[in-house]
């Protein structure tokens, strides 16, 4: 049985991107035979749809290989498996290089690149702060930490204390703790999607815990369409419909996981720079990219940055980004120029 990566920054993307299994939006077209696979992984589930074609292995063989590949990701990057590569690195207090797989090194490298791109807003070492605020595996009571507690945790957080090569990871403070939950589910999607492409499959949709990547057309032979959910805890309704083409889609939202204390709402998404929950008005960020791993990390990083800085980064790097922002009258939508062609 697979084990959850973490409660850290649980972005409830299965709910936010509502179209995968529940609302497939399509038009009329020619019906084709569609294969559907699903199963447990990473404390959540995977769902795969692809159009059958000649020359493929049996459906059972494909699912066996998918399960094997996702199990490997767990063995490499889970923080709940005490013997995973990442857990063993976190348990180590040595400042010498720690040998890891090429896959783990690749994901950590991308996390470090996105940290720079988001001006420090995405930080995979922020776990101790998330735990302090009661949203991590420590399962602390929902209390506001003291300044002294915050200062102590901030002292052991910071991606600048991490170094990675093709085969090793090194920390320069013994307490450094790396959690890849903001990016590793996306990596799992990419691993499965790349496997389908190796088989020659050109029409597919892959989803793991709400992270998605699509290519080609659905069973009606029209492009896959994805519905972005309205940011409401009381209903499940569609905010917008997008047609992502050959892209991954990731959405980060903070409107379902939080706690309130003395009239103040504390989000589960922590700003690594302040050490505190984000306090901006952005409630949902959707990002498109060729890589699900990259879209996954960017959605969280841009959420932390907020409306102005986040959209500034999107413009500077030509990133397709869609934000839903809370206003006095309800919500407003903001789409980067790169995102607008995907709106339907």
Automatic annotation (TrEMBL):
Q: What is this enzyme's EC?
A: 2.7.1.180
Q: What are the entry keywords?
A: Cell inner membrane, Cell membrane, FAD, Flavoprotein, Lipoprotein, Magnesium, Membrane, Metal-binding, Palmitate, Signal, Transferase
Q: Which InterPro entries match?
A: ApbE (IPR024932), ApbE-like_sf (IPR003374)
Where does the record place it?
Answer: Cell inner membrane
* Cofactor annotation remark: Magnesium. Can also use manganese.
Provide any one GO MF term from the record.
metal ion binding
The positions annotated for binding Mg(2+) are: 182, 296, 300
GO cellular component term, pick one = plasma membrane
Q: What is its main location?
A: membrane
Which cofactor does the UniProt annotation name?
Answer: Mg(2+); Mn(2+)
Q: How does it sit in the membrane?
A: Lipid-anchor
Q: Which SUPFAM superfamilies match?
A: ApbE-like (SSF143631)
The reaction(s) catalysed by this protein are: L-threonyl-[protein] + FAD = FMN-L-threonyl-[protein] + AMP + H(+)
Belongs to which family? Answer: Belongs to the ApbE family.
Instruction: Indicate what this protein is called per its UniProt record.
Output: FAD:protein FMN transferase
Source taxonomy: Bacteria, Pseudomonadati, Pseudomonadota, Gammaproteobacteria, Vibrionales
């Amino acid at each position: 049985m697979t084990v959850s990566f973490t409660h850290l920054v649980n972005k409830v993307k299965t709910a936010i991107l509502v179209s995968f299994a529940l609302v497939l939006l399509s038009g009329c077209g020619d019906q084709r035979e569609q294969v559907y696979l699903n199963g447990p992984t990473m404390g959540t589930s995977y769902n795969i749809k692809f159009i059958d074609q000649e020359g493929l292995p049996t459906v059972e063989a494909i699912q066996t290989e998918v399960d094997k590949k996702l199990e490997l990701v767990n063995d490499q990057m889970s923080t709940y498996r005490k013997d995973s590569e990442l857990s063993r690195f976190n348990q180590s207090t040595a400042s010498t290089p720690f040998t890891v797989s090429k896959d783990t090194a690749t994901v950590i490298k991308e996390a470090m690149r996105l940290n720079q791109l988001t001006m420090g807003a995405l930080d995979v070492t922020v776990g101790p702060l998330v735990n302090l605020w009661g949203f991590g595996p420590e399962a602390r009571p929902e209390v506001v930490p003291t300044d002294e507690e915050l200062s102590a945790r901030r002292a052991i957080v910071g991606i600048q204390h991490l170094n990675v090569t093709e085969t090793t990871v090194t920390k320069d403070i013994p307490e450094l703790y790396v959690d890849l939950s903001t990016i590793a589910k996306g990596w799992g999607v990419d691993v499965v999607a790349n496997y389908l492409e190796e088989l020659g499959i050109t029409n597919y949709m892959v989803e793991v815990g709400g992270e998605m990547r699509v290519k080609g057309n659905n069973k009606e032979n029209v492009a896959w369409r994805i519905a972005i959910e309205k940011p409401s805890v009381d209903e499940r309704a569609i905010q917008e419909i997008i047609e992502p083409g050959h892209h991954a889609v990731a959405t980060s939202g903070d409107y379902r996981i939080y706690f309130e204390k003395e009239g103040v709402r504390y989000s589960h998404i922590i700003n690594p720079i302040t050490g505190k929950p984000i306090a901006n008005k952005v409630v949902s960020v959707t990002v498109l990219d060729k890589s699900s791993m990259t879209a996954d990390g960017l959605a969280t990083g841009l959420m932390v940055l907020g409306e102005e800085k986040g959209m500034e980064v999107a413009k500077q790097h030509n990133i397709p980004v869609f934000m839903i922002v809370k206003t006095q009258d309800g919500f407003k939508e903001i789409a980067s120029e790169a995102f607008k062609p995907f709106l339907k």
